[in-house]
Specification:
With 231 residues, the chain is mainly α. It has helices at 2-15, 20-34, 41-48, 52-55, 62-74, 86-103, 107-117, 123-138, 143-153, 180-186, 188-196, 212-228.
C-alpha cells in the first residue's frame, strides 16, 4: 500500500503544472526536512517529479532559488496589526518573524548570508522593511530617527540576532584557552555570569543564549529606548 501511495504521489506531482511558487514551496519543505545544505537542484527536481532542467525555467540558479525561498519565508510573517500603537505593531511583527524562524531553523543563516551577498535585499524583504519603516513613521518618528531605529533593530526585525561568541554548553573547548581556574581568576565577572545564566538548547540562532526570554528582553528594551527619543 505504501508503494502504491508513493507512486500515486509521483503521478500527481508530474501532472501538476510546475510553477515558481511550487518550486519554492517544495524547496522550503526539503530544507525543513534535511537542512538547506542538503538541498540541491537534482533533489528538488526528484521531489517534484521533473527533470532538473525544468527547474531552470523558474529559477536560474541555486542563489536565485535561495532568494526565492527567503521571500516565501518572509511571506509567512504576520501583516501589521491595524488600530494599535507603533510599539505594539513592531513588537508583534518581530515576534511573528521569530516564530517563522523557529518553524524553519535553517533560515536565519541563509537570510544573513544572502543579505551580505546581494547588492540589495530580496523584493519581499524590501517590502517588509518598507512596511516597518512606515510603522515607525506613522508613530511620529522623524526620518533620521527611523534610520537609527532600523540600525538598532538590525536583524531582530527579521526575528534573529547575530551573536558575538558561542557560549553554549557542550561546545568544543578552545585548545589555546587557559585552564578554567585561570579563566575564572582572570575574568571573574564572565565566570559569574556563565555560571548563572541558563541556555536554550533549541535557540533559533543555533547555540548560544538567545532564548525566548533574552530575545523579548532585548526587543522590549530597544522599543522602550526608541519611545523615549520621541518628541
Amino acid at each position: 500500500m505504501a508503494e502504491i501511495s508513493r507512486q500515486a504521489d509521483a503521478v500527481h506531482r508530474t501532472r501538476t503544472p510546475l510553477s515558481r511558487q511550487r518550486v519554492l514551496s517544495a524547496a522550503v519543505a526539503l530544507a525543513d526536512e534535511g537542512g538547506v545544505d542538503a538541498l540541491s537542484m537534482r533533489k528538488l527536481a526528484q521531489e517534484l517529479g521533473v527533470v532538473p532542467m525544468a527547474l531552470y525555467k523558474h529559477v536560474a540558479h541555486k542563489n536565485e532559488l535561495l532568494d526565492g525561498m527567503i521571500d516565501v519565508l518572509v511571506g509567512e510573517i504576520d501583516p501589521p496589526v491595524a488600530d494599535t500603537d507603533w510599539k505594539t505593531a513592531v513588537r508583534l511583527r518581530v515576534l511573528s518573524a521569530r516564530r517563522m524562524l523557529l518553524r524553519h531553523p535553517w533560515a536565519s543563516g541563509i537570510i544573513e548570508a544572502r543579505m551580505k551577498a546581494r547588492a540589495a535585499p530580496t523584493p519581499a524583504v524590501l517590502a517588509y522593511l518598507d512596511s516597518m519603516i512606515g510603522i515607525f513613521r506613522a508613530g511620529g518618528f522623524s526620518v533620521g530617527l527611523v534610520h537609527h531605529a532600523m540600525h538598532v533593530m538590525g536583524s531582530r526585525l527579521l526575528g534573529f540576532s547575530q551573536e558575538l561568541f558561542d557560549d553554549a554548553p557542550g561546545r568544543e573547548p578552545d585548545s589555546d584557552a587557559p585552564p578554567p581556574e585561570e579563566m575564572a581568576a582572570r575574568y571573574p565577572h564572565i565566570a559569574e555570569l556563565a555560571s548563572a545564566v541558563a541556555h536554550d538548547a533549541g535557540s533559533v540562532v543555533g547555540s548560544g543564549c538567545d532564548d525566548q526570554y533574552e530575545f523579548e528582553f532585548a526587543l522590549d528594551l530597544t522599543l522602550d529606548g526608541l519611545a523615549r527619543l520621541l518628541p
